[in-house]
Specification:
Helix content: over 70%
Strand content: under 5%
Order of helices and strands: HHH
Largest sheet: none
Structural class: mainly alpha
Radius of gyration: 32 Å
Length: 107
Amino acid sequence: MKRLPDKERNQQEQEEKIKKLERLIDKMEEMTTSARLKDIAYHFNDKKEVIKVNIIAGVARGVGLTLGTAAVLALLAYIATQAASWPLVGQFIADLINEVQRHMPST
């Protein structure tokens, strides 16, 4: 058996590994595509399943948006309370409150 130089042998080994990896990727792509098609076919054939999935997705989006908005508003409120102690910002807020109270009807 003829022995190849180290450089050529390493190159052949790398090419074999690359080919193996490409075959594996092709196989995984085929599996995910067929699974996705089965899932799509199942959902479009069963109307109750479509409705159930859409309701769950809608509720999840609504809850996510609500929690996200609450977190952002809480963060902004915290930053605003911290910023109120700064002289320039504190004076602006005090002036704003005085202006609002001046325009409110007296009771």
